[in-house]
Design brief:
- By secondary structure, the protein is of the alpha/beta class.
- 29% of the residues lie in helices and 23% in strands.
- The protein has five helices and eight strands; from the N terminus they run αβαβββαββββαα.
- The strands form two sheets. Strands 1-4-5-8 form a four-stranded parallel β-sheet, with helices on both faces. Strands 3-2-7-6 form a four-stranded antiparallel β-sheet.
């Protein structure tokens, strides 16, 4: 489970990769549920563990102002050989949507759960004369295949709802489905 894409997450994920590679683990479930995002660079770094060098992680679309900017992997894909599924829900936003979209588009990784939040924009803070400020959207994030994330979110390949009753009974049908799915890969 990845809770957010903080600077600390980069090092924590690297430690987890070492643990996975030295364990008998054969398959991975990456849980991005309720992950609100964080640093774009950390999402790209984590994607590099799962994708071939040179694959597009995301595209920043600035509209007609300038050419789109692609963020590509440049690292060592040490988890490439592991079958993988990704859990998402309405709390998966921003950098978690970038990572999930990159894995889906590049490796056809199955997304399981509920539609993600739909936060995929680049914003700049502009300060005004009266000491107030305004956030202005200057670009939108697209998945490697060009799907807009903003306001649309990512649709799971396998939709599984988590109800209040499930929570009360401490059941997790999304995780159960992820386990079933990854075991069949």
């Amino acid at each position: 489970k990845l809770f957010q894409f903080s600077e600390k997450a980069r090092g924590d994920f690297q430690k987890t990769v070492k643990e996975i590679r030295s364990s008998p683990a054969q398959k991975i479930i990456l849980d991005l549920r309720n992950n609100p995002g964080g640093f774009l660079e950390v999402a790209v770094d984590i994607a590099e563990w799962f994708l071939e060098r040179g694959e597009v992680v995301l595209v920043e679309d600035f509209g007609s102002k300038q050419d789109p900017q692609e963020y590509k992997t440049r690292g060592n894909p040490r988890l490439l050989e592991y079958p993988l599924v990704v859990l998402i829900n309405e709390g998966s936003a921003s950098a978690s949507e970038i990572l999930a979209g990159a894995l889906r588009d590049n490796r056809q990784i199955l997304l399981i759960g509920e539609k993600s939040f739909g936060k995929g924009s680049v914003q700049e803070l502009e300060y005004l004369r009266d000491q107030s400020s305004l956030k202005i959207t200057v670009a939108k994030w697209l998945t490697p295949k060009g799907d807009l994330i903003t306001e649309k979110g990512l649709e799971p390949n396998i939709k599984v709802e988590l109800t209040e009753e499930d929570r009360a009974d401490e059941k997790d049908p999304q995780l159960d489905k992820a386990i079933e799915t990854v075991n069949n890969l």
